[in-house]
Amino acid sequence: MATPFPPVHSPSSPSMSAPADCAVLAQAFPSAFGNVANCCTLSTDTARVGCTNGRVTSITVQSAGLTGQLPETLGSLTELIELDLSVNSLTGPIPSWLGNLSKLVKLQLSINQLSGTIPPSLSSLSQLELLSLVDNKLTGSIPASFTNLASLKSL
Asked: DSSP H helical segments within 34-141, as ranges?
């Protein structure tokens, strides 16, 4: 059964901790993280979270039947290095706020139902090495500003 995302809310305060980060995940992905006391210890077949110094740095939720748009609350996870939401049924545009996650190295949103164009804001992710958007319903071309992504190794 598909798991819809809750309604989109504004990001929380930038000064967060593991409990606050875990609360963001519980709100964004209630089926995967809603009943988890400490998300930093979570590792299941479809969901994994990594933490460093008490902050969420990696999220993997693959093949979990997630539907709906990416929740804006994920934008408050400022220490995020890896985000992998591949093989779900996410819809809507790739949100421009992803470009604010300045520490992202890997962004994997492949095999979903995302639509629209690739937001130019992703070109501000100067540490990005891997961007996977294959098998979506994207239109248009890769933004010219992506030539500024010196660390990008795989697109």
From this structure: none
Alpha carbons 20 and 18: distance in angstroms, whole number:
5
Its pTM stands at: 0.84
Contact between residue 110 and residue 135 where contact means Cβ atoms under 8 Å apart:
yes
Cα gap 99→112, rounded to integer Å: 19
DSSP bridge pairs for 118: none
Q: Tokens 């875990």 map to which residue?
A: 22
**How does 53-62 read in b/e, with b if 16+ C-beta sit within 10 Å?**
eebbbbbbbb
Q: Express each pLDDT in 45-90 by its tens digit.
A: 888 999 998 899 999 999 988 999 999 999 999 999 999 999 999 9
